[in-house]
Model the fold of this input.
Amino acid sequence: MSVRLKVGFASQVLPASGTLVLFVGDDLVLPHHVAEHIGPAAVEGFARAAAAEKFKGKAKSALVVPAPAGLQADRLVVIGLGRASDREKTDAVALGGAMFAKIGSPRHAKVLVSGPADWPHGPEIAADLALGASLRAYSFDRYKTKKGDDEEKDAPQTLSFGVEDPAAAKKAWKTRDAVARGVVTARDLVNEPPNVLHPEEFGKRAAELSELGVEVEILDEKQLSKIGMRALLGVGQGSTRESRVVVMRWNGAKKKGVAPVCFVGKGVCFDTGGISIKPAGGMEDMKGDMAGAACVVGLMQALAARKAKVDAVGLIGLVENMPDGNAQRPGDIVASLSGQTIEIINTDAEGRLVLADVLWYAKERFKPAFMVDLATLTGAIMIALGQENAGLFSNDDALAERLSAAGTVTGETVWRMPLGPAYDKLIDSKFADMKNTGGRHGGSITAAQFLKRFVGDTPWAHLDIAGTGMGSPASDVNRSWASGWGVRLLDRLVADYYEG
Ligand code: BES
Ligand code: MN
Ligand code: ZN
Done:
């Protein structure tokens, strides 16, 4: 699936049909040149409609005027920017999403990116609006054989932004378009049903990144067994689907020989819980237990498509966790790639087993500057943080700070959680070096503590995205079950701190 919206940038001419979008602050004053442009009849019509609808120009509110007097456009949509003091805080990406939702059924719209003098309506803002609109335009309808007539389906296919400097806006859009497409890839992967997207198919989809210059390596079970990823293979051994590990490399740094940045994703294509089987209610959601891996693929796509000046490695561990005569049992002890042994207490705590081997492998093979892993790891993170923040665990304060900052900028926010020796004790085992669960309390922390045993001294951060990556609450920039969470966050982390 692709971005359903075609975005363009041109000069600020009025459209002859479709929707015209304008912006105003809470004073409802249209910028002088815009007022002149649309003419006195339209200005008067807007003022009357605003009064009739009690439109106050609040941030992200909209006034829709059908068949506006004095204009050729079929409708006029005026978007509020709120008070001057709010304007700087208003996230243009979220605003673009909210704007897109109000455009309605014409298949094309023109957005005049102008507003109060204190609104920084330059090329960057125009491109941010376009990003928000593209993300909002996404819907996953690959398996719907009948076309519905809901708002999303009627959404416009082309959005033209009227700006002062179209060339600069186009340039700013190029990088955002790359990111938007990465988010769409992540969403598509998470939304796909698990009968279609098993580990082998997931590997094939990841391999498509080679078109963008990403080197993709797919390790099959034979190779994984030779390498010694027994913790990962143990999770997949109850499934008729073979496990895979995919390594994706984007070499965009100008300087050679600098340690790469590294991203690791949990890719449990379906998590039944295994022998420690989950209850039936809501189990279908466990098709999304590969949202971490999907994010890593979407991120690598974004980095490659915008030719990021960085050496980045993405690794994903792809398995299916099934109950079966050959499935792993509680009580089993497996030897991980690191050499450390793990007693399986609960086969439903499988994500950490997959990540243990992939993290260790990534560290040994690539000696990265840092590793960030993403995983729909624990239900407990939703008890702690709801769906508003991902849980952040890290052994490195600088990396944690950078992730927090990137989260604030993108709106994909993280909340730091603790680690420590007292928690670590909770996963000591009677029979092996450790066990794979730590009891009822602090479930997200003991899971992170488990991962920490496989990263050595490498700066590392773990993002528990069980709450943010799937079953996502509706937002200005997303209506889909799968949010594609993390692509924008990590793209920003790389762009702000690791390129050049
Ligand atoms: N994939 C689940 C976590 C999850 C739950 C993600 C709900 C998204 C929504 C994970 O593999 C799991 O089952 N975790 C267990 C761990 C427990 C057995 C220690 C959990 O959270 O209950
Ligand atoms: Mn599980
Ligand atoms: Zn899982």
Remarks:
- Residues 19 and 103 are 7 Å apart (CA to CA).
- The domain at 5-143+154-164 is CATH 3.40.220.10 (Leucine Aminopeptidase, subunit E; domain 1).
- The chain has a mean pLDDT of 95.
